[in-house]
Amino acid sequence: MSGSFPLSRAQAEEFDLRETTGSTNADLVAAAPERSDFAVIASLAQTAGRGRLDRVWEAPAGQMLAASVLLRTRTESGAPLPVESWGWYPLIAGAALRAAVADVLPDREVTLKWPNDVLVAGRKVSGLLADLVTVDGRPDAVVVGSGIDLTIAEADLPTPTSTSLALEGAAGSAEQLGDRVFAAYLENLRALVERLARSGGDTSGIRDTVAAVCDTIGRRVRVELPDGTDRFGTATGLDAAGRLLVLADDLPDEIAVAAGDVTHLRYE
Predict the structure, then answer these.
(1) What is the CATH number of domain 220-264?
(2) The domain 6-213: what is its CATH number?
(3) Tens digits of per-residue pLDDT, 108-143?
(4) Phi, psi dihedrals of residue 126, rounded to the nearest 5°
(5) How does pLDDT run across 225-254, given as a tens digit for each residue?
(6) Integer CA distances (angstroms), 143 to 34, 208, 220, in order
């Protein structure tokens, strides 16, 4: 498989394409101490993928790209970024992947749902998951995994609100589509990570960039919080840590949502 994914290989420091694996995120977290910044582990056949809130999912082999990238970002002085800014990694990854999908589907409406689901005409085509890498008990890097539905047929989609690039009109084999999208994603991601590094942890510019493409902002939403509470309200923006700000119907002040399921409401 050494000749596969030529566009993506050109964008990555190390590109490890595996015929099959349980989880590219788990593989890369385990290998992180020996891997360089922007190293990638990818597969078209992932059997034990894990989504947000620890949901486990599996896609038909050869029709979905699972790929994880190691981000060991350092400032110009060689120091790690402030840990409080690391929450932006999954958000900027979502913005980077949204732009890459939009390049492949120029005639479709491609949007970003907080924190990092990419939607095509309201249906999910990809999502991301970030895992922290620690060394000697200290944060050292972040692994950001992505799952991109490439050529999955309607009958095989994981949920009724999912879609694939092929269903939305993109032409090419799974490998061709995966290479095009992932290469563009890596290029976009690198540019955003470098901006974050140059800022020294000042996320104001990054916040503006993500907010500009986040379709959740300004919408009526339902937020299902980890404790089982549901909140209904309007998403108003992002705070300095990348949390979603929601003006809830039953509270006087905005709440900052760090984790939970967000549903866009149409008729509320």
Answers:
(1) 2.30.30
(2) 3.30.930.10
(3) 999 999 999 999 999 999 999 999 999 888 889 999
(4) -160, 160
(5) 888 889 999 999 999 999 999 999 998 999
(6) 13, 23, 31
